[in-house]
Amino acid sequence: MDKNRTEGMKHEVKGSLKEAAGKMTGNHAKEAAGKIEKNVGKAQREVGKAADRARDNDRHH
User: Which family does it belong to (predicted)?
Assistant: First the structure.
């Protein structure tokens, strides 16, 4: 599995927790930072998935 997939998942989880904490405490800056980190994590995970697919395709051809 590509490192970007695991790192992206970590950022997604961390961002989700930060976003939830921001919502619960009314801290809009923390909530926004959490959303950003979560979305960056999603993008990074997708990059990892694409790298895995490319690697798999290379092995099969």
Answer: Belongs to the UPF0337 (CsbD) family.
> Rounded to the nearest 5°, which phi and psi values hold at 2?
-65, 140
Q: What is the dihedral of CA 41, 42, 45, 46, to 10 degrees?
A: -150
CA 39 to CA 52: how far, in whole Å? 20
Residue 54 is which amino acid?
Answer: A
What value, to the nearest 5°, has the Cα angle with vertex 33 and ends 39 and 50? 20
The pTM of this model reads 0.85
CA distance 30 to 33: 5
